[in-house]
Specification:
This protein is of the alpha/beta class and 249 residues long. Helices cover 28% and strands 25% of the residues. A 6-stranded mixed β-sheet has the order 4-3-2-1-13-14, covered by helices on one side. It has a 6-stranded mixed β-sheet with strand order 5-6-9-10-12-11, covered by helices on one side. The chain has a two-stranded antiparallel sheet with strand order 7-8.
Length: 249
């Protein structure tokens, strides 16, 4: 059994330094890996990224992350990523990573993702160039996620996890105003998960959403935005044979 701790939308800044570290130091007691589902900072500044890095440096479990929209706000995502990677955090964007956890190969594929909406109420690559680019950007993110998950299958991973910031399904957005669903996720991410295959999909972003969802192909989806889970992280148990169930976290 693999124990996966996950949280998103921690939105750290200088005044929150040290707040989460005590909880993170308990991770070895309950989890084998920590996944961060984006919006690690408030405005995406290097100063805020250094606060996050300090919070996570030297943890006794591997940490895998994607960036969120807040982490892009200062238009320095490459610098934010570099700061986090220097702290030992595996930051993914259209990439994947493999962890060896007690002899089990656990793969994580990640992308920030983007919006566009869901089947029947979604944007399309039609009309003005800006609208086409909006949807094409989401498609590029989804394609990167798909490629990452397929690469993990090729590497013999017994457990595969899709990590995003934006949601792949509308289920976990319940509680948010329907009018903003197109800005909270895209069905293209779910298509990538279902066609490539995964045991669990984890995302954040939807602060007023709900935790539990599922893709059309039956992959469990969990919204781990901190305002939703209301704790430092949740822990999910994954079995190499497939399936996930929530545990205390």
């Amino acid at each position: 059994m693999i124990r996966v701790a996950a949280v998103g939308d921690i939105h750290m800044g200088p005044d929150s330094a040290g707040m989460l570290r005590p909880a993170y130091e308990t991770l070895p007691e309950c989890a084998d890996v920590l996944l961060l589902a984006g919006d690690l900072t408030r405005h995406g500044t290097p100063e805020e990224a250094r606060v996050v890095a300090e919070e996570l440096t030297g943890l006794p479990v591997p940490v895998v992350a994607v960036l969120g929209n807040h982490d892009h706000h200062d238009e320095k995502p490459e610098e934010v990523t570099a700061i986090l990677r220097d702290a030992g955090i595996r930051v993914l964007e259209g990439e994947s990573t493999v962890l060896d956890i007690d002899g089990t190969r656990v793969g994580v594929a990640g992308t920030k993702g983007f919006g566009g909406g869901f089947a029947g109420r979604c944007g399309s690559e039609f009309g003005e160039p800006l609208m086409k680019e909006f949807v094409r950007y989401t498609r590029r993110c989804a394609d990167g996620l798909h490629a990452g998950l397929e690469a993990l299958a090729g590497e013999g991973c017994e457990v595969r996890i899709a990590l995003t910031h934006f949601s792949p399904v509308p289920d976990t957005l319940a509680g948010e105003p329907p009018e903003i669903y197109p800005f909270l996720g895209s069905y293209l991410l779910a298509e990538a998960v279902d066609t490539a295959g995964a045991d669990l999909a984890v995302h954040g972003h939807a602060h007023a959403g709900t935790e539990h969802g599922v893709t059309g192909g039956g992959v469990r989806v969990r919204n781990v935005a901190q305002p939703v889970i209301r704790r430092a992280f949740n822990v999910y148990h994954l079995h190499p044979a497939g399936g996930a169930e929530q545990a205390a976290g």
